[in-house]
Description:
5-stranded mixed beta sheet; mainly beta; 16 strands; Immunoglobulin-like; binds copper (II) ion; 2 domains; 4-stranded antiparallel beta sheet; 214 residues; single chain; globular
Amino acid sequence: MRFATLLIAYCALSTGASAGIVSVTVVDKEGKPVQDAVVVVSTTARGQPKVPLPMAITIDQEKMRFIPPVSLAPVGARVTFVNKDPWEHHVRGSAAGLAQFSSTGGFELRLDGKPEGKPAKTAEITADKAGPVLLGCHIHGSMRGHMYVTDSPWAQRTTPEGLAVFDDVPDGPAQVRVWQADQLIDLPLQAVTVGANPARATVQLQVVPRRRRV
Ligand SMILES: [Cu+2]
C-alpha cells in the first residue's frame, strides 16, 4: 500500500504531468553556436529542478586565468576562490555589463601565492545579489572571468553546441533570459509556454564573442 502510494507519487513527478522541456539555443551575430552563455528560465509556478544548482562553488586562479571562465551560482551560494599560482592575485568582483558604470558594490580578495608543497590559499564570498559579476585582478590586467548569480533555480551554461536544455520546468508561461559576457546590452526576454510539447527558443546575440585564450 505504502509502496503503491510512493509509486504513484513518483510517476506524477516523472511522467512530466506538470513539468516540461525548455530547450534554448544561443547563437552569435553570425549564427554560430555560443558556448558559456547563461540561460535562465523564470516562472511564477512553484517547483524546483530535480537537480538543484550547487550552493557552494569554486573558482580557481591558475596560470593567470579564472577557471571556469564563466561560473554559475545561485543567490546565497558560497563561492571559494583558490589561488593555485605561486604568485599573489588580488581578485576583484564588480557588477558586469552596463551596471558596472553605476555600481559601487563588489568585493576584493587578496590571495597570496601557493607555497610549493603547501595547500593553495583560499578566500570566500557569498553570492548575495542576482546578476552578472565581472572578475578581474588588480595585479594582472589580462585576467578576466565572470560569475553569473541567478535567482531562478533553472539556470545553465550553454554547451559547445550553444544548447541549454531544461527538462523539468513547471507547465505554464515562462520567460527565457540569456546573458553572455560580451553582450553588454541586455537582450529582450523571450516568452515560452511550457507544456506537453517541448518549448524551443533561439536567442541571437548582437555580437560575436571574443575568442578565449587557450
Ligand atoms: Cu592576479
